[in-house]
Design brief:
By secondary structure, this protein is mainly alpha-helical. The chain folds into two domains: about 30 residues, no CATH class; about 30 residues. It is built from one helix and two strands. Strands 1-2 form a two-stranded antiparallel sheet.
Length: about 60
Amino acid sequence: MPWCETCNRQVEDSELVDDGACPDCGDLLPERRKVPWHFKAVIIATTIYLGYRTYQGVTWVAHHV
């Protein structure tokens, strides 16, 4: 959600005026920033790692029960 510095609050997307201005003070709010590619890479790597560790844990339990 965009942040209005003048009003010191977050503005919902549904509240924005057509030109992207704050509904209370009328200041133009900055565009939303994209998520960096390296953040997405970290999330994917973490998911793969945790999936592998889950697989290891399940196989360990299966062999020791």
